[in-house]
Write a structure and sequence with these properties.
The protein has 8 helices and 10 strands. The strands form 3 sheets. It has a 5-stranded parallel beta sheet with strand order 2-1-6-5-8, with helices on both faces. A 3-stranded mixed beta sheet has the order 3-4-7. Strands 9-10 form a two-stranded antiparallel ribbon. The protein is of the alpha/beta class. Strand 1, helix 1 and strand 2 form a beta-alpha-beta unit. It binds ligand 9D3. Ligand 9D3 binds next to strand 5.
């Protein structure tokens, strides 16, 4: 899979995507990730990326010309172009699974200035938010989406990680887990987990997952 990211803050991307499962996927050739600076697509002496909204009002808007130049350069005819903004539909695991099946994606990061509406109309196939809170720009959302999608690429997870993934894909929260020691600072591991009775353990875990989900995330049930 090829993912290109267009951003005004390319330096933010150094680090999070250079570690762990994402870096392993990149090294294995499963993910071809490239970060591009929107400012490289400006055409004036001052490298202007934004301007004031027609009709007045607070804030600035990203100008269409650099965005059009960048997207036309970076996106092929089969590239899925996705704007990142607080006004997008909410990213979730179902969207991550769909994106993991798209060969070429271009993530266009906004920031505290919206997009000129013509960018939405002419360039974007979709617009995503990562949740209902206000960030300073779309760089972290872009990294979140790259991370969530990359671990779903075939071969990205090791055998152990894949097996875990399967056993937790029941749509509930995880049951409580413990490792050694069996008693720590006076707190004992639930007896059933030490019993060796696998049917009882499975029953206990299922009940814990259910009650925990009912308590914390009834929306999932
Ligand atoms: C005046 C309206 N503001 C929206 C609440 C403007 C605005 C604030 C912050 C526009 C952009 C931003 C920067 N955030 C993103 O670009 C962004 C984002 C987010 O803030 N939260 C969750 N998901 C995303 S995806 C992109």
């Amino acid at each position: 899979m090829k993912i290109d990211v267009l951003t005004l803050f390319p330096a933010m991307f150094a680090g999070p995507l250079d570690e762990s499962i994402v870096m392993r996927a990149r090294r294995a050739g499963l993910l071809d990730l490239k970060i591009h600076n929107l400012r490289d697509y400006t055409y004036d002496r001052h490298k202007t990326v934004d301007d004031r909204p027609f009709g007045g009002g607070p804030g600035m808007l990203l100008k269409p010309e650099p965005l059009f130049a960048a997207v036309e350069k970076l996106a092929g005819k089969d590239t899925r172009v996705i704007l990142l903004s607080p006004a997008g539909r909410s990213f979730n695991q179902a969207i991550a699974r769909k994106l993991a099946r798209v060969p070429e994606v271009l993530l266009v990061s906004g920031h505290y200035e919206g997009f000129d509406e013509r960018v939405r109309e002419e360039l974007a196939h979709d617009e995503l938010s990562i949740g209902d809170y206000v960030l300073t720009n779309g760089a972290l959302p872009a990294m979140v989406i790259v991370d969530a999608v990359t671990r779903l690429l075939p071969g990205a997870l090791g055998d152990d990680e894949s097996a875990q993934e399967e056993s937790f894909s029941h749509g509930l929260l995880e049951y409580p887990q413990y490792t050694r020691p069996a008693e720590f600072r006076g707190k004992k591991v639930p007896e059933v987990l030490l019993s060796g009775n696998h049917a009882e353990i499975a029953k206990w875990r299922a009940e814990q997952a259910r009650s925990r989900t009912r308590e914390r995330r009834p929306d999932l049930m």
